[in-house]
Amino acid sequence: MKRWRIPLGLLIVTILLIGALTIPVKQAFTFSEIRTEKPKLAYYIMDADSEFQIRYVHSIFLTDVLETYRVQPDASLKFLTMRYEDVGIGLPAYAEEGETLDVTEDGMYTLTYQDKVIDSFVMYIGDVDAQLAFRYKGIETDLKAYLQRGQSYEFRVEKLTLYELMKGVNLNGKEE
User: DSSP E strands: which ranges in the chain?
Assistant: First the structure.
């Protein structure tokens, strides 16, 4: 009977350790590589602030585009605004239903969305030197410094386990 105590204790510790590693513990903005056999995960730990921005340089106009989002209580993403200088491919010159378009004196367009909510979106990391950045709490992180060029990533908000936190790339505070 004594010989079963050590293996039973070891089994209990193993089960507790596996449980601790697989229970979601931290909510994060995640970039999950798709269309690959060995997907990589990069993440940015969230706190109470639910607004963030994606800033990129438009591939044709070579001007900044700034998209602003807010995380909803169910972890979906509410698209708030898109600011840009030029109209054309991907940058509308007019508002559709549920949107408003304002043009400022300096020529900046702001497209505001009333109720556009999505679960996630896919970002393609182009193999060009145009900028692509994630902004959160006043810190801008260069995504091309951490995500592989030529790959697609699904962006979403989700709770990560300790295992995922240890395995993934933590982007918090990385400003390169």
Answer: 24-34, 41-45, 51-57, 64-71, 77-84, 99-103, 109-118, 121-124, 132-136, 139-142, 152-161, 169-170
Which residue, among 109, 117, 123, 121, has the nearest Cα to 152 in the 3D structure?
123
In the chain, count H helices and then E strands.
Answer: 2, 12
Q: For residue 138, what are its two tokens?
A: 């006043």
Residues 62-117 have pLDDT tens digits of 899 999 999 999 999 999 999 999 998 889 999 999 999 999 888 899 999 999 99
The type of residue at 132 is L
| pTM given for the model | 0.84
Residue at token pair 């378009």: 101
